[in-house]
């Protein structure tokens, strides 16, 4: 019988394996099953020959001839013992059998009260054992079936990818939110609590989870501050500092929640994954915004990861570009630009991150998330600052022989920004900070013929009044290269408004013969399911159109037009309304009932948004 102290770990392991996609049924009873528990291992003749009377907690069938051994202990301080026992079980199997091989071994230690630590290694062909890692960092959670198969097939301890399933990712994020909620942590502070824990996890040593709340929280704060100091960002420490409540019972509850956050983040290998090509921190923050109202009040809508990746692709960001985001939020656009350079120009990545990435975020707690995001990419010294972008300018500066820039309060006399990517705050308050105000500011920092990409509510490009006057000014000085509309639930659950991406070329007046690319993307690869937007798992319209949009913007090829979806059109500069939206310029193919309903829904959502904005502005004026 299992020891009482280890019962909870059995449930934890089985549930986590199931969440990561394993079939946790017994293979002896179900042909598709993949999980043997203790006594069940010995019903497999080869496993029985290798283990003798030994009974590890679980043995996972990776494939018919490849297995993964898992051993558990009931206390955190026994992680090495659990890991070493799992390794020994695996070696015994390999030494005593010829038909199968145990190629992976995992130790699990802890309990529901303490949390759990997972340590996993690969048993290599020469008998040596190496901890499994990604981007040079050890993984801290369980493997998915595809990851385990990769390790077994290639007889390696190095993962080639670490993409966390969207469902698992959002589930963990919501679990974290729930733990912080139960500890009575304000909903608008939860993302910064997570940031502090993330920074504390940079250290290779674990904190003392048995320490008193005061000592434990102080340790977390010190670890986070040390990381910020090392990256010359100490000024952000106060915005992510954990602050204990006064009562002892509340302190204990607060500490318990932070500990659970720590272990939940380890479950999805956050330390290794944050150095990958996916902005996990931004994805977590999107989940937290669903529960908080602070960001909504100031019009912050975070740009989904697949849209930032699409944006840097169609602008063809390269290592010679100086990239700017004047309202950078958690740094999604800047992260996407950095990741593109790391993948396509690996020899230039150090120069690029030091000299070519610039971002401003007015909300200090949100800016701190951008800093954390870049710290995990080895770029904590990036030029991301907390300030009002409208009061700043970027002037050209040469640093170590490289073209760069610096922030100044004076109007820039030498420009250097070649690509701007931005999703300015939705205009809800003052007339001097409409969405287009940020676009104008960014254009003023850019070199002639530089490209600006902005995510805007569709109303900015068709409304009358101030928006119409702005569009006329815009075209007198610049060229609108492309206008692309997206589904009105793109930002769900943060907002429901039809967004546009507008691409503008700086410093070239829009001519009467200039063709603009208009596109309507109704399928961006995601569906609204169970109060979330999740990938639908098949090729999307966004995937299909990206190469053509990129080709048009670079002038390198012909566009294959599709009526109603992707067409080159000449903007009517004499139009009194100057509505620069795809709906106005694209041809109109016959629509089915579902498309008509979708169109009506988009129109209704936009009308509701406009009425809310009008009411808010009237209330502010009173």
Structural class: alpha/beta
Query: Would you tell me the overall average pLDDT?
Result: 87
Main sheet strand line-up = 11-10-9-14-15-17-16-18-21
Work out the radius of gyration. Answer: 27 Å
Beginning-to-end CA distance, first to last residue: 72 Å
> How many E-type strands?
21
Strand content: 15-25%
Helix content: 40-55%
Give me the number of helical elements.
Answer: 22
Oligomer: single chain
Quick one: biggest sheet?
9 strands, mixed
CA-based shape:
globular
Features:
single chain, 622 residues, alpha/beta, nine-stranded mixed β-sheet, six-stranded mixed β-sheet, 21 strands, 40% helix, 19% strand, globular
General description of the model:
Strands 11-10-9-14-15-17-16-18-21 form a 9-stranded mixed β-sheet, sandwiched between helices. Strands 1-2-3-4-5-6 form a 6-stranded mixed β-sheet, with helices on both faces. The termini are far apart. It is α/β, with parallel strands linked by helices and 622 residues long.
Tell me the layout of helices and strands.
Blueprint: H1 7-19, E1 35-37, H2 38-41, H3 45-51, E2 58-63, E3 66-73, H4 79-96, E4 101-111, E5 115-123, E6 129-131, E7 133-134, E8 137-138, H5 145-154, H6 166-182, H7 190-200, H8 213-230, H9 237-240, H10 248-267, H11 270-273, H12 280-289, H13 294-297, H14 305-314, E9 323-325, H15 332-344, H16 349-355, E10 357-361, H17 364-375, E11 383-386, E12 393-399, E13 402-408, E14 417-422, H18 435-443, E15 446-457, H19 466-477, E16 479-485, E17 499-505, E18 515-520, E19 526-529, E20 532-535, H20 541-554, E21 566-570, H21 582-585, H22 593-621
Helix pairs in contact: 3-4, 6-10, 6-12, 7-8, 7-10, 7-17, 8-10, 14-15
């Amino acid at each position: 019988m299992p020891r009482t102290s280890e019962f909870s770990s059995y449930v934890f392991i089985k549930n986590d394996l199931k969440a990561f996609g394993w079939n946790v049924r017994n293979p002896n009873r179900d042909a598709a099953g993949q999980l043997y528990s203790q006594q069940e291992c010995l019903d497999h003749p080869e496993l029985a020959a290798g283990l003798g009377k030994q009974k590890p907690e679980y043995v996972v069938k990776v494939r018919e001839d490849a297995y993964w051994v898992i051993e558990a202990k009931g206390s955190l301080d026994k992680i090495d013992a659990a890991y070493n026992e799992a390794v020994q079980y695996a070696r015994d199997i390999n030494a005593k059998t010829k038909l199968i091989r145990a190629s992976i071994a995992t130790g699990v230690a802890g309990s529901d009260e303490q949390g759990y630590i997972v340590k996993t290694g690969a048993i290599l062909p020469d008998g040596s054992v190496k901890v499994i890692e990604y981007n040079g960092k050890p993984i801290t959670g369980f493997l998915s079936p595809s990851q385990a198969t990769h390790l077994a097939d290639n007889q390696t301890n190095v993962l080639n990818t670490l993409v966390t399933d969207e469902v698992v990712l959002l589930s963990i994020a919501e679990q974290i939110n729930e733990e912080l909620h139960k500890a009575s942590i304000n909903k608008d502070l939860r993302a910064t609590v997570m940031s502090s824990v993330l920074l504390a996890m940079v250290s290779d040593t674990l904190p003392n989870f048995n320490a008193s709340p005061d000592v434990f929280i102080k340790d977390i704060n010190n670890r986070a501050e040390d990381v910020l100091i090392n990256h010359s960002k100490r000024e952000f420490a106060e915005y992510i500092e954990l602050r204990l409540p006064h009562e002892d019972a509340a302190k204990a509850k607060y500490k318990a929640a932070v500990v659970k956050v720590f272990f939940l983040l380890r479950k999805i290998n956050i330390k290794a994954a944050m150095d990958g090509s996916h902005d996990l921190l931004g994805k977590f923050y999107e989940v937290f915004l669903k529960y908080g109202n602070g960001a909504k009040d100031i019009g912050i809508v975070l740009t989904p990861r697949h849209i930032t990746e699409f944006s840097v692709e169609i602008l063809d960001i390269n290592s010679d570009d100086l990239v700017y985001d004047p309202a950078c939020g958690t740094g999604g656009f800047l992260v996407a630009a950095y990741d593109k350079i790391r993948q396509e120009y690996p020899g230039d990545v150090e120069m690029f991150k030091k000299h070519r990435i610039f971002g401003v975020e007015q909300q200090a707690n949100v800016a701190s998330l951008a800093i954390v995001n870049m710290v995990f990419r080895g770029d904590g010294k990036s030029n991301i600052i907390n300030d009002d972008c409208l009061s700043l300018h970027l002037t050209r500066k040469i640093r170590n022989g490289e073209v760069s820039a610096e922030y100044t309060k004076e109007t820039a006399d030498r420009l250097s920004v070649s690509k701007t990517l931005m999703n300015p705050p939705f205009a809800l308050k003052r007339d001097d900070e409409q969405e287009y105000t940020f676009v104008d500011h960014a254009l003023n920092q850019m070199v002639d013929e530089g490209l600006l990409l902005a995510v805007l509510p569709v109303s900015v490009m068709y409304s009358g009044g101030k928006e119409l006057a702005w569009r006329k000014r815009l075209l007198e000085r610049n060229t609108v290269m492309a206008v692309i509309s997206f589904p009105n639930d793109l930002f769900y659950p943060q907002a429901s408004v039809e967004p546009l991406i507008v691409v503008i070329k700086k410093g070239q007046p829009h001519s009467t013969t200039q063709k603009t690319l208009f596109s309507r993307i109704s399928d961006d690869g995601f569906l609204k399911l169970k109060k979330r937007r999740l990938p639908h798992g098949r090729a999307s319209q966004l995937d299909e159109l990206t190469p053509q949009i990129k080709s048009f913007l670079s002038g390198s090829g012909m566009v294959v037009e599709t009526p109603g979806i992707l067409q080159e059109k000449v903007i009517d500069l004499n139009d009194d309304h100057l509505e620069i939206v795809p709906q106005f310029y694209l041809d109109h193919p016959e629509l089915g009932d579902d498309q008509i309903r979708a169109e009506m829904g988009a129109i209704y959502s936009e009308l509701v948004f406009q009425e809310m904005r009008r009411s808010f502005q009237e209330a502010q004026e009173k």
